[in-house]
Amino acid sequence: MAYRWKNTLSAEDVTPYSAFLNRRQLMAGLAAGGIAGALPIGAKAQEALEPNAWEEITNYCNYYEFGTGKEDPARYAQALTIDPWTVRIDGLVDKPGDYSFADILSQMTIEERIYRFRCVEAWSMVIPWNGFELADLLNWVGVQSSAKYVAFETALRPEEMPGVSSRVLDWPYVEGLRLDEAMHPLTMMATGIYGRDIPKQNGAPMRLVVPWKYGFKSIKSVVRISLVEDEPPASWNVANSREYGFYSNVNPEVDHPRWSQATERRIGSGLFAKREPTLMFNGYADDVASLYDGMNLREFF
Amino acid sequence: MVDKINTTLRRVPAWVLYALAPIPVIALFYLGLTGELGIDPAKRIEHELGLWSLWLLIAGLAVTPLRRWPGVNLLKFRRAIGVITFFYLLAHLLTWLVLDVQFQNVWADIVKRWYITVGMAAFVLMLPLALTSNNWSVKRLGALTWRKLHKLVYPIAVLGALHFLLLVKGFQWEPILYAAVIAGLLLSRIRTDRIPGIGQFRQA
């Protein structure tokens, strides 16, 4: 069921790409002219959670299959073939099979969601995604009652992915969610950004977005979704379980062993950007905290 | 060939290095301010200055082996290389402190985060070297003590390599490469004639 979650942002924030650029230019012009105070209140409130620019979102990516540098994915991901694209949906489902991306799209309602995005490396962005609720897809294929978790897998194409020749991680990249997390209205499969098709470096043609978890949980270029009974492996957890937990919920009180998670640097605010406090569950505590009632979040980090 | 290089080098005064040294730092900050260092300029400057510090450490450590084997004499530049290394390390540290962590939880980071502990230790060890990089100190301490003190650059280089190894995510080649180069430069200093077994053969 689409539209189960509403942005706290106003409708004006759902901005087409071109208008967005115009508005940024307009606001920059006003600010430069020293009359920023003359802006209507609505516009000021929007500024508080203004999405990052297209250039920022698409040129600052972690997608290690294309290299470990932040700009490597934008440089090398263009080699990825995304048409045709098939997603295998299997495991404890009523209608397992190989679904073409077009088949999936024809069944889903695409909507825009402006989400905070918090990387485990303590930087953050605000991204206007387009996509559908993962729950809609799972309901369409029919989840069997014995399923407890959802496992995801990224494409592994050594001939198209220069980064996989180096064993930074155990390829293919895999991730997992508890079924209730996967069915949560905030959890989506993104197919676009700013109303355009999602760029390859951001996980085309279809990626997971779980806004209350660290970014690496939001697995890119998904080729397989399996409904399973036991907790599935998650790549970073397998690589280093002391540093990356299965849950990896954004939590300012539980530090990464090598750095603090209490604050974050908002990308795109320039050389002298001030750190901002990180919010519990990345600001989605009201929506998702109940999923973890009674759990020790230090133990299940 | 080597003679030619040495003749040319003899004509270059050491102050040239001091004059050139600020250029990369100024360029980095200028590009960062004008938005030409990509999406996250603060991190980029921090990282680049860290790499410069490692390159300079390696350059300083290369002076002796270069003199011993190909016979290229860079000795008169070594103090300048060392002093410049210290200033790059300082710039790297200040970028981290001011632009990255912004003075938040600095002490906790130094104590708790291994890669920061290690990096900070390297900086602290570098302080006495920077302070004694002048002729007055060499005289004051005596050449022997001064040379002993400046052997601190070996642990500093090890800490620098370790700092890089500890901070990356996942398995990556770049820091391993740096560690290997530094290890090679340090191993090249082991005098085989002083190792008992090998030394005896030499004497015979």
Question: What's this, in brief?
Answer:
The complex is a heterodimer of chains A (301) and B (204). Chain A has 301 residues and is of the alpha+beta class. Chain A is built from nine helices and twelve strands.
Please explain how this structure is put together.
The complex is a heterodimer of chains A (301) and B (204). Chain A has 301 residues and is an alpha+beta fold. Chain A has one domain: Oxidoreductase, molybdopterin-binding domain (Sulfite Oxidase, Chain A, domain 2, Alpha-Beta Complex), CATH 3.90.420. Helices cover 21% and strands 22% of the residues of chain A. Chain A is built from nine helices and twelve strands. Chain A has helices spanning 17-32, 41-48, 54-59, 72-76, 101-107, 134-141, 179-182, 235-239, 285-288; strands spanning 86-91, 97-100, 111-118, 123-133, 149-154, 174-178, 188-193, 196-197, 207-209, 222-228, 263-266, 275-277. In chain A, the strands form two sheets. In chain A, strands 3, 4, 7, 8, 9, 11 and 12 form a seven-stranded mixed β-sheet that branches. Chain A has a five-stranded mixed β-sheet with strand order 2-1-10-5-6. Chain A is globular, with a radius of gyration of 19 Å. Chain A starts with 16 loop residues before the first helix and ends in a 13-residue tail after the last helix. Mean pLDDT of chain A is 88; it is low at 10-16 and 18-47. Chain B is mainly α and 204 residues long. Chain B has one domain. Chain B is 76% helix and 0% strand. Chain B contains twelve helices and no strands. Chain B has helices at residues 2-11, 15-20, 22-33, 41-68, 78-100, 106-112, 114-131, 135-141, 143-149, 153-167, 173-187, 196-203. In chain B, helix 4 (41-68) packs across helix 10 (153-167), helix 4 runs parallel beside helix 11 and helix 10 (153-167) runs antiparallel to helix 11 (173-187). The model of chain B has no long low-confidence stretch (mean pLDDT 92). The chains are: A alpha+beta (301), B mainly alpha (204). The A-B interface holds A 55-56, 59-60, 64, 68, 70-71, 121, 123, 166-169, 236, 239-240, 255, 257-260, 262-263, 265, 267-268, 270-275 and B 29, 32-33, 35, 38-43, 45, 99-102, 104-105, 108-109, 112-115, 166-173.
